[in-house]
Task: structure prediction
Amino acid sequence: MRLDRMITVVGAHAEGDVGRVITGGFNPPSAVTMFERMEIMERHQDWLRQLMLSDPRGSVNCAVNLMMAPIRDDADLGMIVMEPDYYVPMSGGNLICTVTVALETGFIPMQEPQTVVRVDTPAGLVEAVCECSDGRCRRVTFRNVASFVMHRDATVEVSGLGTIAADVAYGGMIYCIVDAETLGFALARGEARDLVGVGERIKEAAAEQLPSVHPENPGIHTINQTLFAGPLRIEKGVKRSKNTVVVSPGRLDRCPCGTGTSARLALLHARGELATGETFVHESIIDTEFRSRVVETTTAGPVAAIVPEISGRAWLTGVSQYGVDPEDPFPLGYRLGDTWFR
Result:
């Protein structure tokens, strides 16, 4: 067997969403910050993302996380998230996968009943408290970066839909949040393909019509995803809501989406619909759950913000090695849009 670029990957999923974790075979570039490292990879080492997220080795139906030593002195672990179309500053489901892999493979020593892991991400430092027993990481609860509303009660002109109401909020990625019921969706599994098609059109229109720039890092300036929000309801005294997020080039996030939940917490808090400390359960299209709450209020530059806390689980699925035969006609893979929106 002749393979170059041998990459070792530990498979994992967080509440249903696949977040593979690269544990060996790639040396990250030198940088002063994790955000700068992400930018260098995007400009000069994008072959890794293409290799791992394109046919015939990978798929657009997952994300890949590069796990490494941190750059920050106050962190235990470094992480860069690669999605099919983007490098993103932060992802909650992917952080849960990466931390779980780090603990269960011994990259970070596990302590029972709790291990605290401070993760150096391009969005900033994220602290995770991990419930551990019998050599397993059972649950990860993390305090995310400051999250805030960027556009509230806005409107967007979308081809085929006309004028729709939308909000834009940041939770580690920038989300366009729209009301699912108003757009005719019940967030049922059978609506998945239609949700993807509509969601991608909304995202493209919102990115053009609602400029959104992080007040502390102008390098974060793109609406990455559309979040379809279901109605807020109360069950046994706890506020809950279903949602789904469209990930480009066109798939649904299988988990409730950690950064999307953070963005929605910011919006609910700004509207007075969720108090600080109040539990909010966000449900996915496959009925998995993230438990969440607003820990405290803060600021991001001059903008009012919240500190969100998200809690979920991940499971390991296998170990794989990927490489490229020197004679392979597709060393960086390819895409054929027969299984997603475009």
About this structure: The mean pLDDT is 96. The chain is about 20% helix and 40% strand.
